[in-house]
Amino acid sequence: MHRSHLTGVFVGSQAIADGFITPRQLRERSYRRLVQGVYADPALEFDHRLRCTGVALVLPPGTAIGGHSAAAWHGAPFAAPHDPVTVVRPPDVEWKGPRGVRVHRTTLAAGDVEQRDGVPVTSSLRTAWDLASIEPRGTAVAALDAMVRAGSLTREALTSMAGLGSGRWGVTRVREAVPLVDPRAESAPGSRVRVALVSDGLAPVPQYEVRSAGSFVARVDLAFPEARLAVEYDGAHHFVENQIRADDARLRRLEAAGWRVIRLSATDLRDLDAVVARVRAALAGMSR
């Protein structure tokens, strides 16, 4: 007997075989397809973790959700809903995965995988390694910043991991990323901008409190205190009317305290070299 509506996440062919739904109902109802053959109740919030949950239903034994996808369980939910789901598999498991899944072949040691919400996910430390070795540096550091801030990792554990990884695949990239981790960062875009600036030899201070005559003025994303230069990232919520007024008032307070502010948006993040050049030009202007 068929149910009127399936809830949760399910494999379509299995639900049909078990008599929970007919092929016609699967086609005609508004179930959300997560990846090929896997569906979800449309009432569920559609985010990257939901897609990972769907992929987990078709994973072969010995594999796990990893990297940028696993980071969502460790305090860094930055992967977008439609970003590829990262899966790690040992060399003896042959599996390419459906479209929308990125499979990384690697060795998985005992303790590298744990169950989270019924999903096999790499541990926080293993996730950190894969992030640093697979992802672009800015993306990796942003996730590691958040994981340390969330308490899933410590900087000491990351440093130890990098030091013990000699001869391991990706160790050079890991050792380049780990020193850049700073849990003071409070947003992924802010981390990416900081990494670009630091990689170019600059030294911005994250989440700096600007004070004037002993009074608090504002806390800025990135600061060059000696130059009184702030770099701020304006996310989508900054373009809501009430927030625009609050941001304008905050900017006036910073300017009255003698600070200049470079404001960045999502468009600016597409060309971080240009952002670095803009910051360098502002700093050079102060030195003349």
Structural notes for this entry:
It is a single chain. The chain has 288 residues and is of the alpha+beta class. The protein folds into three domains: 32 residues, no CATH class; 129 residues, no CATH class; 100 residues, Endonuclease, Chain A. The chain is 38% helix and 20% strand. The chain is built from eleven helices and twelve strands. The strands form four sheets. Strands 9-10-11-12 form a four-stranded mixed beta sheet. Strand 2 and strand 3 form a beta hairpin. About 2% of the residues have low confidence. This is DUF559 domain-containing protein. Pfam families: DUF559.
Q: How is the main sheet built? A: 4 strands, mixed
The rough form would be described as globular
| Elements, N to C (H/E) | EHHEEHEHEEEEHHHHHEEEHEH
Uncertain stretches of 5 or more adjacent residues: 236-240
Number of domains: 3
Strand order in space, largest sheet = 9-10-11-12
Radius of gyration: 23 Å
Mean pLDDT: 92
What is the structural class?
alpha+beta
Distance N to C terminus: 80 Å
Query: What is the helix fraction of residues, given as a range?
Result: 25-40%
Q: DSSP helix count? A: 11
List how many beta strands DSSP finds: 12
- Report the sheet-strand fraction: 15-25%
InterPro entries: DUF559, Restrct_endonuc-II-like
Protein name: DUF559 domain-containing protein
Organism: Geodermatophilus sabuli
Pfam family, one: DUF559
